[in-house]
Amino acid sequence: MMSETHDQNQQQHKPTTSSSYSVFLKLLFSEPLKIFFQNKHIFLPIFLFLTLPLSFLLFWSSFSSRPLKRHIFHLESVALLSSTSFEARHILKESREESLALLRLKLLYSLPSSILSFLSFISTVHVTSLSPSQRPSFVSTTTAIKLAWKRVVVTFICSYAIFFLYIQVPQLLAAAFLNHPRLSLPILLIGGCFEVYLMGVLGLGLVVSALEDKFGWDALLLGSDLIGGRRVFWWWVTCTLVAVSGWAGNQFDKLTDGHDSFKWGIWTVVMRWQKLGLLCFYGVVIIWTFIVTTVFYCDCKNRLIIKDVNHTPNANGTDLTDFTL
Questions:
Q1: Which of 87, 167, 243, 282 has the most other CB atoms within 10 Å of its CB?
Q2: Who's near 315: CB < 8 A, 6+ residues apart?
Q3: For residues 211 and 221, is the Cβ–Cβ distance under 8 A?
Q4: What is the number of other CB atoms lying within 10 angstroms of the CB of residue 180?
């Protein structure tokens, strides 16, 4: 009798493909839309004054640095094909000067972009983490920013260091097996898949630092532990978010590439409206990404609390949020 009950419980808790797909859609669309419209009095100012300017800065940084990048690649290719070492050294020197100019340009945009990114991230995470009974305000959002920004900055620095060190590994391994395409291609493919997963884990760690009294490596480790047995699911969600943001960036590159964008007449008006639409869309994607990550964090946290309560019959536990996917 007990074995039959155990089998029935296992069948009830066994995830199916349809249920996983419904949870996937709920996490990506249903919950973020519901949260956005419930708190539109906060999210609309965040969009207009934080994520929309951030979107403009990111796109303009990409657009303004594109000629320098192309010139550097051109100089490096010419240096490889140069006939004398003296000419190659001269071209490489010019390439280094252009690289320094590109670095200065990136630093020029990085400070305002980082400030807008931190403000929009903490604001969105704070508003999303509140239960429907707790209506957020500008005062509570400002207080959350004052309390969390140091933890988020420290955790971001640690996340950037981990990500920067990791992305070198697949490239070095692929370069070591450059003469063996059957090895170098799988290395790059596996490395790219794990890179997306790492982005998801680091993003969850940033949410931890914004909502809990943890920062740095502790926040990142806690974010990784919270995922538990849902790592493949979170990888798919992160892939979707990365694909959407990458599509927006590629579309902007296509619209601003070549001479078509300088034509006069109706085509110019259409192109300008398309660029403006992409800027707004990317600003929405930024908020959407923050909301999805926060909802997933809250769901993982609730599951952990429920698990602890089930294992501790006399414990008095309370849910931090109302999200249950």
A1: 282
A2: 308, 309
A3: no
A4: 11
Quick one: DSSP state of residue 179?
T
Q: HSE (CB half, 13 Å, CA atoms) of 325?
A: 29
C-alpha 21/C-alpha 18 separation (Å) is: 5
pTM above 0.70, yes or no: yes
DSSP 30: I
DSSP 139: H
User: Is residue 309 predicted with pLDDT exceeding 80?
Assistant: no
- 248 burial via Cβ count (<10 Å: 0-12, 13-18, 19+): buried
Q: What is the pLDDT of residues 248-289, one digit of tens each?
A: 988 888 887 754 444 445 555 556 788 889 999 999 999 999
For 305: left if phi > 0, alpha if psi spans -120 to 50, otherwise beta; the answer is alpha
Contact 43, 127 (CB under 8 A): yes
* Long-range contacts at 262-265 (CB < 8 A, ≥ 24 apart): none
> Rounded to the nearest 10 degrees, how much is the dihedral formed by the CA atoms of 124, 126, 129, 132?
-90
Per-residue model confidence as pLDDT tens digits over 192-214: 999 999 999 999 999 999 999 99
Residue type, 89: R
% of the chain at pLDDT higher than 90: 47
Cβ-count burial of 274 within 10 angstroms (0-12 exposed, 13-18 middle, 19+ buried)? middle
Instruction: Read off the tokens for 15.
Output: 């995830």
Degrees (nearest 5) of the Cα angle 188, 191, 194? 155
Residue with tokens 């946290």: 301
Residue 54 near residue 286, CB atoms below 8 Å: yes
